[in-house]
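Components:
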Amino acid sequence: MRERNRIIVERNYWSRMKRQRLSRRNLLRASARAGVGAAGLALVGCGDDDDDQPAIAQAQQQQAQQQQQAMQQEQQAEQQAVQQEQQEQPAQQAEQQQQQQQAAVAQAQQSDRTDSQGNVIQTGGVFKRAAASQLTLIRFPWNSAGNNGTIDPTGYMYNCLTQYGGVQLTETANRFWEYSNPDWEIKPDVAASWETPDNQTWVFNIKPNVVFHDGRAFVAADAAHSYEAIRDPGVSGGGSPAHNLGKVIAGAEAIDDVTMRLDLAEPRGFTGALTAYVRMGHPETTGSTTAPALDVARNEEAVLIGTGPWRFDTDSYDPNTGWRLAPFSEGHMGAPNMDEITYTIFSDADAIGIALEAGDIDSHNGIPFNNPETIDRLTASDEHWGWAGTSLGGQIFRFAIDVEPTTDPRARHGVWRMVDQERVVRDYFGPYDDAGRLFFQRGSQGYLEDLDRPNYDPAEGAKLLDAAGVGAGSVLTASTLPIRPYAPALAQLLQAELSTLDIELELEPTEYNVMIEKQQAGDFGNFLIGFGNWIRPESAALAMVMQDALHGEGNAKRGGDASNPIPVRERPYMDNYFDWLDMIVDVQTGNHEDSEAYWRSFNEKFHEVMFAQAIARQRGAEFYTNRVHVPDPGPTTPNPQTIWLEQT
Amino acid sequence: MTYVLRRLVTQLIPVLFLASILIFASVRLIPGDPVAGAIGDAMGNTDPEVYQKLKEELGLNKPMYEQYWIWLGRIFSGDFGQSLTGLPVTKILWNAIPASVELAGLAIIIGFTLGLTMGVLAAVNRGGFFDWFAALWTGWNIGVPSFVAGLVYLIVFSVWLDLTPVSGRVPLTEDPLEALKHLALPALALGGIVAANISRFTRQSLLDTLSEDYIRTARSKGLSNGAVIVRHALRPSLIPVVTIMGLELASILSGTLVIETVFTWPGLGRALINAVNNRDYTVIQATTILLVFVFVVVNLIVDLVYVGLDPRIRIGQSAES
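Structure:
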């Protein structure tokens, strides 16, 4: 990983002088000043010590004359300098820039603030970020966010009860930064402290100085409201990760202004993600409406109100252009370091890469680039820093377990062994993606290379399919998403493999929005290819696993009724549900063992429980221009408070 | 004037009415549910009550004909409805139209000026350098898809040469110089295709005209080559070119869909693409009907321009009279 450039602030005068450009203007000015100084010294140093008044008067007269001459010289020099200035506009601009930079550094020195890397923090500037085109007000309000792109702006605007390192489990390898919270410690955010009187109750003490963007004090009732609200599908969107996390909550209640009690539905280890993932919202903008952001947009009086260091500028929002965040200096976190954060909506991922290369934007909000060459150029660039490589996100291959013949796990495993994962990854994903299967990525605690190998084994697949009664003449159905090129390619490879066993695979190419409906209705045939990320790189990954482990809705339903899903714990293969649940809780809380046997067991269970298999770990890239300093990177977005921009 | 009014009554209004029906119906034929798309996500399941409530809020629970009449009625009062993004469609259009007008305007200027100039030069210097250069230019612009050409322009002019910004827009009224910097590449990408087509037609039309008997007569009178071309050949040659120009205006409108996406230009084309991706019916309908309106009006203007170019053409008269 290349070390990022840092501004070096020299306190040594000569080293600073050495860096300064010696212009003719500076030279003339310095000469004139030297002349004045020399004249003064001559007068003082050469004068008599006696009190001879005429001599003093003469000396004073000489001094005045010399001073006058020197001033005239200085004025002439200034005039010449001005003339030169007019002739040397570019040089002047460069000089001005240099002076501005020095002023910014000087200002930072005065403030005497340094970041965790020892750099003097500068203030001001506009942090320019790119956003995905699908981003709409309806999709990024508060807690109904469904993907990492939408989490980004709200990450700047809202606080949670805690900050939890556990969600960074997946952030160990191929990242620019290391764990910011490697000891799994749960750190306070708006909660100052917490205690657990019993195994179903958590009591949080709220910091007393937290205020909303509208100036009202944040109290425990607001925290309780936030937890109650995410349980309401009408507020949090029903399918959002936050809502699914909220299913473990029995109730939230404010005891007084600074104390909130959270009751869980069943005994549970501490759910770190629940307190580090649920954003604290203002009741007036997180009300029980169908789509709060829609109401916010309709009601010009209302804005998205949080407690974070940045507030949403509703007037700036244009779904065709972008939006801006304004600093909220009156909050408990104080003024952020930058003047403004702007988001430009890009419809084209390659255009984002080019904009970043050209310096039009400072960062790109984790949106993967389609073109590996763009990543190569940014990696080689001296003007950018960041990381590129495999990340946790996986393109999935999801089975329905209530549609014959994939009700039989052997049929699912059989089909999966017919998938030439490595070929698909090599041909369609490029060099940055891994044909891995594991939840954990290389370098992380739970990664085991032998388990991560693709399991392409047509002979074994044929045996499993035969054992499940899927033989010659059988018909399987699958939905694919043609907008992702690997999906139809993989489907055709699989079709060819299965045809050697006289098993027919009927493919239904499906458009994105239709696929959403199909998945929600559980109506995608035996499996779907290419839709939905298995686990997204920027999300609270274990929370997602927890969500699937607990509920796992969507691909198994009673009597074909999508609104009546079969919970994971009741599914036929899930005979060790509570063991599995315990393991997830242990991993989340850091109470896990750290032996290879433990992680092997975890991974094997994971493969058995998950009804989705990864085709490839998604290519991920996150780059910044060198002017962006992210001293304390967080799990989802750069820390909204400590990030600062180098002034040029 | 009577002709213009008659065209408006007999063509513009019926065309817009039929187009509105077709647009309204075809938008609903696109697979995918806008409500599910708006509130669902790839991992989750939408609550049926939430789904139904939002559908009612957006008026999508009503029968299709009823939705159509409501929409049509609102258009007459200047209300294009509510976007799924949460904003009024008029606001989205209002923000996007100036951007598209700027882009299309400059693309037209580049396309027409460059196309006519290169076409004339290529015809006059047939087989010479200009002809060769024009053929190369035309080949590039017609053969290379605009989204590829756009990306190439971005890499060369913005990243390598650092001459222009990559994305975004500065309104012309705010800072004309900066606005032109932002406009240059998308307008070049869009206008380049137009220039290529016009150049080809101008060249061919001018070559045809130059082989006419009356041109030979003009030359035999001793007129200079320049006088022959400017006074006698150019004007009749432009009649088919004007037809092409009318069509090229339409291609500029459709070209904005791609170019605005590549260059992150916040115009109507990008609004339409985003709306299609999000199944934002009201925005798709409003944008498309607006583009149809512009197209019909442009056709009318082209017909009027014919009269100026060819005195033999009389508008509003049948062939027999």
